[in-house]
Amino acid sequence: MYVPDPADTTHEADVDGHHLEDHASRHDLGGADALTPLSTLRVERITSAQVIGTGSTTVVIYNSIIQEDDEAGAWTYSTSTGELTIDITGWYAVSVGVLWEGNATLRRLIQVELEGASQIGQEQLPPAASSFRQSCTAFIPAVATDVIRGSVHQNTGDDLDVLVSSISTMQVHRIR
Questions:
Q1: What is the structure's pLDDT at 18?
Q2: CA dihedral of 69, 92, 109, 66, whole degrees rounded to 10
Q3: Exposed, middle or buried by CB within 10 Å (0-12, 13-18, 19+), for 87?
Q4: Distance between CA 107 and CA 155 in Å, rounded?
Q5: How many CB atoms lie within 10 A of CB 176?
Q6: Both 84 and 4 in a single domain?
Q7: How far apart are CA 64 and CA 42, in angstroms?
Q8: Dist CA 153 CA 110 (whole Å)
């Protein structure tokens, strides 16, 4: 997102003479390349529903790599643990999403965790009788060896499933 610098004397009328790339470099966003992800990963939950116990926070296991464009070797992703280990220090945009089984009681929470202890991004939703999507996005300054996970929590009084779906996904972009 372009945020104008109050000290910048460029006016909207001047924008036609300057491309976004010019604005990005003037405002230290890294130039045009900062607008294109350096690496991309998309993983989904595709083999079976994952049971989430009531009252517990559980790492979502996205068990199939759908797309990976990572020539630089920015990360290592484990389809058995759901953990993304950062190999190159930088800024990462991480989105996690799930399709919940329906249950009309209490709440659902989804979050992006850094090192398993810090919740970087979080969304909480009220109950829904039918299945529904829940997602969260976080921008993370990560260093090599950091571990990023997507996790969920629910307290309905019963076990609930994260359903198999292209909605149950983690997407990661190294942006700087």
A1: 32
A2: 0
A3: middle
A4: 6
A5: 16
A6: no
A7: 9
A8: 7
Structural domain boundaries enclosing 124: 37-174
Rounded Cα distance between 131 and 17, Å, is 49
Q: Kindly report which listed range (76-85, 88-97, 109-118) carries the lowest average pLDDT score.
A: 109-118
Q: Average pLDDT for residues 76-93, to the nearest whole number?
A: 96
Number of domain units in the chain: 2
* Same-domain status, 32 and 56: no
Question: 19 and 63 share a domain?
Answer: no
Domain match, 2 and 60 both: no
Q: How far is CA 66 from CA 20, 32, 114, 134, 171, in A?
A: 31, 27, 23, 20, 10
CA separation, residue 7 to residues 10, 11, 20 (Å) = 9, 11, 18
pLDDT digits (tens, 9 = 90+) for 19-54: 333 333 333 444 445 556 789 999 999 889 999 999
Token pair in block for residue 66:
């759908």
